[in-house]
Amino acid sequence: MLYRGMDRAQLDVAYNNSAAVPERDAIVADWAARSAKVRRENAAGLDLAYGETRRERLDLFLAVDPKAPILAFIHGGYWQMNDKENFAFFAEGLLPLGRIVSEVRRSVRWLAEHLGEYGADPNRLYVAGHSAGGHLTAMTMPLPEVRGGIAISGIFELEPIRLNYLNKKLGLDVAEAERNSPVRHLPPAAGELVVAYGSRELSELCRQSIEYARAWTERGLPGRLLLVDRADHFTILDALARPEGVLTQALLAMLGR
Asked: The domain at 8-255 falls in which architecture?
């Protein structure tokens, strides 16, 4: 079966981000080292349970001002790899400034219900995510608890995923791919969404972001497309980890600061 003229072998290449970035392992190792330091020095709570299964855990990092907005970050890994422990490094840039879809929605609702216990404002909850986390960010946007979001290098149409190597582990059928494709289920109303992608991403990842942002804004929903210049699928995260990064600045603009 072809998808946009691509057969299975071509789709495998079109969605293999790790193979496309030779420096991927070194980048991820750096994330892990930086995250370990942040978890040691800045955590308000680690492995907080928002559900009953072992993986339904989140880490909480609070800004100096406990009433500052909260950003719930959803890591990537094509819905099957990586752990939250290696993505705490985002707090370096943000703290100075102030089943998976159902689990993520449950985590957002848990935050809204419990942030007040930590002195934080549950009415200022934003979501961001990378790669598969960008997809999950889009899937949380209809929730009334979410004020806005940043979907970074996301997957918004799952049919090509169903047709490539990733589906060996995911096991998506036609109905599941349709049901979990955000571009096919735009909400009638939502907060602002920034859809970001890197100029050096695989062409299919670029297309997914461009078409989803177009569908979002044509629906009359608030948001925009953001191209991060000279960034690939992994280095794009530096734009959120640094206070001066373009994604950090997009978040601050969303907050009205």
From this structure: 3-Layer(aba) Sandwich (3.40)
Give CA separation, 164 vs 12, 50, 90, 202, in Å: 5, 32, 31, 15
Q: DSSP of 147-211, one letter per residue?
A: -EEEEES-----HHHHTSTTHHHH---HHHHHHT-GGGS--SS--EEEEEEETTS-HHHHHHHHH
Q: Where are the domains of the chain?
A: 8-255
Single-letter code of the amino acid located at 53: T
Residue 140, H or E segment:
helix 132-140
Task: Tell me the percentage of the chain whose pLDDT exceeds 70.
Answer: 90
Dihedral sign for Cα 245, 26, 36, 101, please.
positive
Structure tokens at 191: 């907060």
Sheet holding 125-130, edge to edge: 70-74, 125-130, 148-152, 192-198, 223-228
CA dist 135 and 161 (Å) reads: 12
pTM listed for this prediction:
0.82
Q: Tokens at residue 215, please?
A: 């569908």
Sequence-separated (6 or more) residues with CB below 8 Å from residue 129: 73, 74, 75, 76, 135, 136, 137, 149, 150, 151, 152, 154
Q: How many CA atoms lie within 13 A of 5 on its CB side?
A: 1
Quote the CA–CA distance of 90 and 186 in Å, as a whole number. 28
- Distance, CA of 85 to CA of 231 (rounded, Å): 23
Question: Could you report the per-residue pLDDT of 92-127, keeping only the tens digit for each?
Answer: 555 444 388 888 899 999 999 998 898 888 899 999
User: Distance between CA 190 and CA 136 in Å, rounded?
Assistant: 15
CB 254 within 8 A of CB 192: yes
